[in-house]
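Researcher: Sequence recovery benchmark, item below. Answer with residues only.
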């Protein structure tokens, strides 16, 4: 009997040691995998929780700047959360503000987890369409103007936040002065349907008038009257300034075909417009702006941050760029500290 008990006890100890040994091997393998896999804490949490997300995107119109912002936004989210964990419902309003409202209503009906509103009319539609679903704007110049907030301090304080593409407007005015110190009359061409365009031209006009220029605003309501307004502006101006205006961005060929033959150079508010019809710009990377917006979205989706407590973020860097083809065609000498815009392939 004693021998039988001893054998039983020895077998039990052997099984116990084997079980402990198996557990130790598993833990070591997991630790090794964790050390060799580079991933963000947010992505780890999402993967561990098995969470999936649906993100709605309403983009006002298709053009280079807005396209780049949307792509940067998506890339940042996919990198953090994994492609398998996020679904994008992406729609384009083709430049129609009313269509933005229709798109937003559909996204709200679909109960998406977050909405990206790309450009001011999209943001305005989203802010009106929902007060519960988190909304992030991008490529929006001034949120206080867009959302009619008096004394805006950088925090919306509701379900809305995002990133701004506002460049230093006084520095854009200084750029015009640097390149065209002998000019007298500056035309400011913009779409009157875009509140942020009005804000930009008013600010730039004040800065230019302090520098001694005579300024006149030339507004058009939509692409149908852009040609006639641009023709008048070109005939009455030595230089034309165009802000980050989506209507112009979608119709740069019209502006170029009018201004280039008249030898009237255009200073643009962003790189995409400059590449199409401008001579120079002080601009940001819209892709990087989209990435910054995507990182904000990840924090909201994973519960790391509350959208109502997130202030508007701004682009950290601005670059002086020029259009080599148009600069040469108009005989404009560009300083050495400007970066050439590469021609599209």
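Model:
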């Amino acid at each position: 009997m004693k021998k039988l008990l001893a054998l039983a006890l020895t077998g039990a100890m052997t099984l116990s040691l084997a079980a402990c040994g198996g557990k130790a091997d598993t833990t070591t393998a997991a630790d090794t995998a964790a050390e060799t896999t580079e991933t963000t804490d947010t992505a780890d949490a999402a993967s561990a929780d098995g969470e999936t997300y649906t993100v709605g995107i309403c983009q006002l119109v298709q053009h280079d700047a807005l396209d780049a912002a949307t792509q940067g936004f998506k890339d940042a989210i996919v990198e953090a959360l994994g492609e398998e964990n996020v679904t994008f419902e992406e729609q384009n309003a083709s430049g129609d503000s009313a269509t933005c409202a229709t798109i937003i209503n559909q996204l709200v009906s679909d109960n998406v987890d977050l909405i990206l509103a790309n450009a001011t009319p999209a943001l305005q539609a989203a802010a009106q369409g929902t007060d519960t679903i988190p909304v992030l704007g991008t490529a929006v110049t001034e949120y206080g103007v867009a959302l009619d907030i008096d004394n805006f301090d950088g925090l919306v304080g509701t379900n809305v936040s995002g990133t701004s593409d506002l460049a230093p407007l006084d520095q854009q005015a200084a750029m015009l002065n640097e390149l065209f110190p002998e000019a007298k009359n500056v035309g400011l061409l913009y779409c009157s349907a875009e509140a942020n365009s009005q804000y930009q031209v008013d600010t730039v006009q004040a800065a230019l008038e302090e520098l001694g220029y005579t300024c006149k605003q030339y507004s058009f309501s939509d692409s149908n009257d852009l040609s006639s307004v641009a023709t008048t502006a070109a005939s009455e101006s030595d230089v034309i300034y165009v802000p980050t205006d989506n209507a112009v961005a979608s119709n740069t060929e019209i502006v170029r075909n009018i201004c280039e033959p008249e030898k009237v150079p255009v200073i643009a508010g962003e790189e995409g417009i400059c590449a199409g019809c401008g001579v120079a710009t002080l601009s940001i990377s819209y892709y990087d702006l989209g990435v910054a917006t995507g990182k904000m979205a990840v924090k909201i989706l994973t519960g790391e941050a509350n959208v109502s407590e997130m202030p508007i973020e701004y682009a950290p860097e601005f670059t002086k760029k020029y259009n080599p083809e148009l600069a040469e065609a108009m005989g404009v000498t560009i300083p050495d500290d400007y970066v050439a815009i590469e021609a599209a392939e």
